[in-house]
């Protein structure tokens, strides 16, 4: 009997083992995240067609559908992929002259679930773009409820025992690079063994083609789209392949596509330390009553964080709370600090309390918060169909980024050189250096799909949005991308955080809505301020009006409430190392 068959036969025994192992280290829960979705089983959603969408009510407010698309667009009549789609319908009737059709959204990743995003954040996004539009989310091919779904394992127990997430902290130990490289070789072999039939077709070009099929199934000819983070790669690829099929296209929190398709991931962190500095400056400005991690100067706060890193590196903090247990070590703390930079208004206040407690030797607040927000613990089910539509986030993430990018040399020496190079780019470089190395063992699949360069004269110019201090997609990349698409304009949002959803801005919202309605763009070099720019700390999870919130106009309150609703939904849920 093979080792893999033994694993399948011993599912229950492995589940018991996993139950003991997973709780010993919080990082081990960051495996293939699982998101629950609509009450209607996806196998009961809609009829499958390549020409139209049959919508099924899947909640009180949303409708769902599935669409057949070619698995291989070079053989359109052969095997099919099935794309799961969700809609928060426009409140304007479809037969009204005011109805403006669907806007497709992609929340990032790669491998992020658009169904989960729109299921939770659809109503809030509708408030931002207006009632004339259908808000559409879809799971890209290989992801979650779309099939075939990327999975590198025969059992859930195997998956739990061998996390495939591409991001590890390569500064966590002396052998971290070598271990991460070695694991990548095994993961690559698993990919070649279990997914060869469909895996070559899981890439961004094919997803862009799927988006056009979704638009056409709506009875439309051109795409309206808003993509965040990796969704900017998807949007830029669509605009490059189908420049005459762009009706409205916003890319927000822009990835350097050249760096992405080179599988380097070396330019993402250009502004990460600038974003971290906003935590130090904000904590100092809030004072000892506003920031629990306060020190007399921003430099002293920064030094206290460095001291904490070294403390938990030398002696990880053991934690046992009423709900969870595990270790707070260097990798967990360092990764969490990068994650909180995605959404300062949500996380800065929390992290100041958690850091202050950790400095006293109490890791409970930090670990409890991560555990509460993270994916549910692994459970082994004897019903093989029960988890058919689980969201295996990390497997899809790895497949898309490794398939999209150029082949990575497999030698360990190359991995060591890459780590040393990227580690110099930012204090968080040891985290992002691991992404390229994760692809070093990936199967040698054909690379005939689109790999750049992006650009072209689109039928309508793009609106490109970047923040002044985005930790993982710099404003520099937004400006670089704009040069590839003539007449496109970069709108700068003046805040820290990842994409324009990091902070509420009446100004940004107005430009977004105007663009979707008329195609009008802001003047070049426009910079939008954000609401609550000086009120990051002590906001009680944004519940209680603080400072300038007390003087909000009705319009400002409307935008703030919509932002707040999006922030609390699945895309910004647990702190995690995803773009």
TrEMBL record:
Superkingdom of the source species: Eukaryota
One Gene Ontology term of the molecular function aspect: hydrolase activity
Stretch forming the signal peptide: 1-28
UniProt protein name: Alpha/Beta hydrolase protein
Location of the Peptidase S33 tripeptidyl aminopeptidase-like C-terminal domain: 428-528
Family named by the database record: Belongs to the peptidase S33 family.
Keywords for this protein: Hydrolase, Signal
Keyword Hydrolase: yes
Provenance organism: Mycena rosella
Occurrences of domain AB hydrolase-1 (ranges): 102-284
A Pfam family this chain is assigned to: Abhydrolase_4
